[in-house]
Amino acid sequence: MTIEPRKVYLVDDDPAVRKTLRRGLERRGFSVETFKSAQEFLDCYHPKQPGCLVLDLSMPEMDGLELQQELVNRDIKIPIIFITGHGGVPQSVQALKAGAIDFLEKPFLPDSLTARIEAGLIQDKINRDEKQKIESIRIKFGLLTEREREVAQLMLDNDANLSNKQMAKILGISPRTIEQHRSRVLEKTHAKSAAHLRSLASLIGLTPANTE
Amino acid sequence: MTFLDRFMPHGMCYAWQPDILWLNIISDASVAIAYLSIPFALVRILRKRTYKPYRGVIVMFSVFILACGLTHIMSIIVVWNGYYGIQGLLKAFTAIASIGTAIMLYPVVPKILALRSPVELELEESNNALHQEMEQRKRTETQTSELQNELAHMGRLTTMGQMATGLAHELNQPLLAISQSADTALLDAKKNSNADPELIDCLEDIQSQTQRAGEIIRALRQFMSKDTENRSGINLNALISQTIQLLGPDARKHNVTLTSRTNVIPKPIADRVQIAQVLFNLLRNSVDAIASGNCRERQVTVETRRNKNEVSVVVDDTGPGLADGVVPFKAFESSKTDGMGMGLSISRSIIESHGGKLWFEEAPGIGARFSFTLPVLADDN
């Protein structure tokens, strides 16, 4: 048993499929939550919960592809493994283009599904770590005071490599104060250098001349 | 005496007896006047009519009757002046004209007999028109029945194919469940160190045989979906009117009006018969829905529209809409007592295999609306 619960969300309109897949996956140490429709999943799933989505392609009302689209619209990045009894090539291409991990035709061997789920969970972890990292950078940047933000912006804009004196002139404060602000900015954002600060800023979508 | 000289006047033969003399003269004069007037009438006819049947005969007849007239005038002249030579020449000419006319007339007689009166002609014209219309109808009927035959043939093929596909989908679900259950049982059995090896073998067999069944279904489906070579640019509007024709008797029986509102649309690349099958399915569903629903308004409308990269066809009906709990497009599910539940499922597969979409919505007002789209090339006009 791993420390993190290996969570699988299963959406399929067929109760027999839900029951047997859930049992099989649980025996293999996954924690499984089942949903009988795409809508039910949308209603119950919270994006904060890690996991991997095993999704039936053809369902009445909202089908698998539509749910995938809806998740993209809601900016929810859960890895998806499609399972289908139809095996339509065009749909599989569309699904994979929209970021699905894989497309399995029923009946598949349980091992091939679990292998994909493992990959999906790793992908989810990476996505979440990335998201968390970005979130923490955003928080750190949020700690900056208004003046520090002005200095940070100048540091981001700094193609000309402005000296403290030049910055001081622009902002109308003393070079000494600029120096203090600069080190506070680096300290608060955990940046090692101005270049590092720029790369962190770009991760959260901050570009030169656009700190807000 | 030469040939053209004057001989004794013919009046001498009458002994100048006035009654005989004048009887002959007046009779000859009357006959001549009558004869001479006939060619004028004939010439008039020939001039006025643009259509001139038997022109030769008429001209010949005019010459003949003219000559006859002249011989009678000559008979009057010779009463006082005995130009019998000239009279003979004139008679000879008349004889030739008469014989010529007679010869020309005989072959024409049956044709003239066959000539029709204006009433008959009128009758014939309307007869012709009727005939043409019948031909046209027959052509349309032939086209429609050709489509019907094609549909029936294709229908059998696709129904087979789609039943296989539908069946495949329906079967894949339980197969997956069987496979999963066997696998779980296998997992449990293997945990147990003194498990019966035969049991494990059994479970492994179940597992591998469900996979095999899955392979068979997959192969079947691939075999069925290969058929894309029959595609070409199709005239959707024409296909719609043919389908409406085809359903005409059925619709009339149920007192349902089928109308189309077609717009100018580009030709989608598609399999004509397959699309006809979709149209047929949708329209017949609508007719059936209205027939079963005892509706006051009994109207099915098909509309074509042009969108950006696709054309769409919308089928509206004034029927009762879908019954609660009926999931459209699901194979083997039907609200009709005699339905197989394949129509919509097949139709959707066909449209999707063409890269389009087929969907259902409640129609504005009352009834059901089924729409489908087919992609067209962006620069296609």
Q: What this model shows, in words?
A:
The complex is a heterodimer of chains A (212) and B (381). Chain A contains 9 helices and 5 strands, in the order βαβαβαβαβααααα. By secondary structure, chain A is α/β, with parallel strands linked by helices. Chain A folds into 2 domains: 7-131, Response regulator (Rossmann fold); 143-203, Winged helix-like DNA-binding domain superfamily/Winged helix DNA-binding domain (Arc Repressor Mutant, subunit A). A 5-stranded parallel beta sheet of chain A has the order 2-1-3-4-5, with helices on both faces. In chain A, strand 1 (7-11), helix 1 and strand 2 (31-35) form a beta-alpha-beta unit. In chain A, helix 7 (164-171) crosses helix 8. Chain A is elongated. Chain B has helices at residues 18-48, 55-80, 84-114, 118-191, 197-224, 236-253, 272-293, 343-353; strands at residues 231-233, 257-261, 269-271, 299-306, 310-317, 358-362, 368-375. The chains are: A alpha/beta (212), B alpha+beta (381). The interface between A and B is medium-sized, with 24 and 31 residues.
Short description:
Chain A is built from nine helices and five strands. With 212 residues, chain A is an alpha/beta fold.
Summarize this structure as a short list of keywords or feature phrases.
heterodimer; A: 212 residues; alpha/beta; Rossmann fold; Arc Repressor Mutant, subunit A; 2 domains; five-stranded parallel sheet; 9 helices; elongated; B: 381 residues; alpha+beta; Helix Hairpins; Heat Shock Protein 90; 3 domains; five-stranded mixed sheet; two-stranded antiparallel sheet; 8 helices; 63% helix; rod-shaped
